[in-house]
C-alpha cells in the first residue's frame, strides 16, 4: 500500500465523500459520473475514467478529477445533459489529446465551439435550439465556465495546478503535491481538517500551540471547514 500511495504524490487522492464536501456535488452523483450507471436497463458510460485505481473496486478521484467534477456540475446545472457533456469531453479529447479537458484553459476558450458541434449533431427540437442560443452567445458560455474555473492556477500546459477554494486571501489551498491534495492552511501546510478539529476540541490558542502554528491559522481552518460543511 505504501508503494501505491507513493505513486499518488502529485496526483491527489479523494473518496467521493471527500470530493463531495469540496466540490459541493453529491457523492453518489460523482460515483455515477466515474463508473457509469444503469437506468431502465440501459447502461450509461462514465463521463470519464478516474485517474486512480487502487485495485479494491472502490471509487477514488485525483485532483484533476476533482476539477473536472466542478466544471461538469456547472454545465449540468445549466440544463446541459450528461450525454452532451460526455460528447463534449470526447470531442475535446480528440481535438486536444487531453484526457480530462473540461477544466483546462483550452476548454475555457474553445468549449463553446465544441458544444456547438455536439449540439449540431442532435435532432431538431426546442432543447436543441435553446442550447444553440446559449452557446452561440460567448458571454453566456463564459458565465457558466468562469465560476468553476475561478481561483485555479494553471501550469504552462494550461492544466490545473493549484486550487484556492476561497481565493488566495483565505490562505487555504488544494495542492496535489502536498497532503495528497487535501486542503491545507498555507502558512503551516497542515490540513485544515486537522487544525479545525483541534481548534474545536482545544480552542484556537491551545490548538495553535499543539501544532506550532498561529491561532490565525487555526481560525482560518475552522472557518473553512465550517463553510464547506454547510455547502455540502
Structure description:
This protein is mainly alpha-helical and 232 residues long. The protein has a domain at 162-232. The chain is 55% helix and 8% strand. It contains 11 helices and 7 strands. It has helices at 2-7, 16-23, 27-35, 63-77, 82-96, 105-120, 126-136, 138-149, 192-202, 204-211, 215-231; strands at 37-39, 42-44, 152-154, 160-163, 172-173, 184-185, 190-191. The strands form 3 sheets. The chain has a 3-stranded antiparallel beta sheet with strand order 5-6-7. Strands 1-2 form a two-stranded antiparallel sheet. Strand 3 (152-154) and strand 4 form a beta hairpin. Helix 6 runs antiparallel to helix 7 (126-136). The model has no long low-confidence stretch (mean pLDDT 90).
Mean pLDDT: 90
Note the beta-strand portion.
5-15%
- By DSSP, the count of extended strands is 7
Q: What's the end-to-end separation, in Å?
A: 30 Å
Largest sheet: 3 strands, antiparallel
Rg of Cα set: 19 Å
How many helices? 11
Low-confidence stretches: none
Helicity, in percent?
A: 55-70%
Descriptive keywords:
single chain; 232 residues; mainly alpha; elongated
Question: Can I get a quick summary?
Answer:
This protein is mainly alpha-helical and 232 residues long. It contains eleven helices and seven strands.
List the helices and strands and how they pair.
Blueprint: H1 2-7, H2 16-23, H3 27-35, E1 37-39, E2 42-44, H4 63-77, H5 82-96, H6 105-120, H7 126-136, H8 138-149, E3 152-154, E4 160-163, E5 172-173, E6 184-185, E7 190-191, H9 192-202, H10 204-211, H11 215-231
Antiparallel strand pairs: 1-2, 3-4, 5-6, 6-7
